[in-house]
Amino acid sequence: MTADVAYVVFGASLLLAIILPDLLNRWAISAPMVLVGIGMLIGLTPLPDGMPLDPQENRAAIEHVAGLVVIVALMGVGLAIDRPLSLLDPKTWRRWSPTWRLLAIGMPLCIAAVALFGWVAGLAPAVAILLGAALAPTDPVLASDVQVAGPQTDDHEVDESDELRFTLTSEAGLNDGLAFPFVYLAIMIATEDAVSHWALEWVGFYLIGKVVIGVLAGIVVGKLLAFIAFRSSNRSLRVAERGESLLALAALIAAYGVGEIVGGYGFLSVFVCALSFRSAERSHDYHAAMHEVAERLERLLTLFVLLILGIALTRGLLDALDWRGVVIGLGLILVVRPLAGVLALTSWPRRTSGSTELTRPQRWAAAFFGVRGIGSVYYLAYAGGESELLAQDWLWSTVAFTIVASVLIHGILATPVMARIDPARG
């Protein structure tokens, strides 16, 4: 029965992944909203009996599926970004300045605020920090309505009117990996001795070392694959000439695997690999073909996961939710993230020449659309495998509630807000 139900659910996800995006294109309603709603309705029927919905019993499977969805999304996001970024060119770094501010100021503020409230509300320090870390990143999976559409391959100069979408896209690509040090902080507090025994290790290795290793691994894999695809002396290896777009899948799997094997953050490796690959032959149509493969796979996996999430919601996933979870979820979406984002993006009196600025409406929109999603599920499942303290039902209920609230609130507002800020592209 379980296998038959899985076929039905997967088939329904595939069908909806094909028809929903165009069907809902002009409405103030998103495909994730519809999928969660359909899943909840299915959950009220006897159909899914026997499906593996309990996060405690199926933590490993949830971790692997959620991680796959995230790395596919990260590859698509990296390939979609047209704006160059070079380690050796300060001018390119300045054009990413809103992204750096959201990452360096906005995300730590969100983590700290959620962790502080959780601690005051009676959570153990490790649990409070994990909740803040899991809920802090803007999700690259569910934020497609407010991100750049895809790679432009006509040698155009980046349109500065895309600044809002670029900021949200680049932030979503980077902050999944950059939240990992704080997940490790929660794990170490829960499993290790006194903080003084491992504090320097956390700063030196988990906060700095693994980030640097992950970035370097992504650069190496991206440049190597780009050389093979575009410039190899062996014609059979120059897959760009044949338009073999499945290289996108090989790239994301290889980048993640290499990043993890050498001790870095695999999420960062995948995104940086995509950026590095994108920098080669920037105007080649092959980038658009690869992005389409990643986007289609991401759409299918995302809607499948959301359908399962909707079923789980009406099958007991929210049973442990209490007022603390509701306050944290809604407070993060409606108060903490917007205020932290605006503070991070506020213009400084003296700006470096060449840095990019958002208009006031763009700043508020970038601050507000901090979509929560599948990445939060991955972090929670990962940490739960390291410590029983971090595998509480209450954490799953709170994260699930926050994701659904984000899907509803951001899904309803994305189309009208983006249309108002940028009528030509909304």
UniProtKB/TrEMBL annotation:
Chief location of this protein within or outside the cell: membrane
Keywords for the protein's UniProt record, in alphabetical order: Antiport, Cell membrane, Ion transport, Membrane, Transmembrane, Transmembrane helix, Transport
Entries under InterPro entries matching the protein: Cation/H_exchanger_TM, Na+/solute_symporter_sf
Topology in the lipid bilayer: Multi-pass membrane protein
Entry annotated with the keyword Membrane: yes
Listed transmembrane segments: 6-24, 31-48, 60-81, 102-135, 178-200, 207-230, 250-277, 297-317, 323-344, 364-382, 394-419
Superkingdom as given in the UniProt entry: Bacteria
Domain Cation/H+ exchanger transmembrane as annotated: residue spans: 14-419
Location within or outside the cell: Cell membrane
Pfam families: Na_H_Exchanger
PANTHER family, per the entry: CNH1P (PTHR32507:SF8), NA(+)/H(+) ANTIPORTER 1 (PTHR32507)
Protein name, entry field: Cation transporter
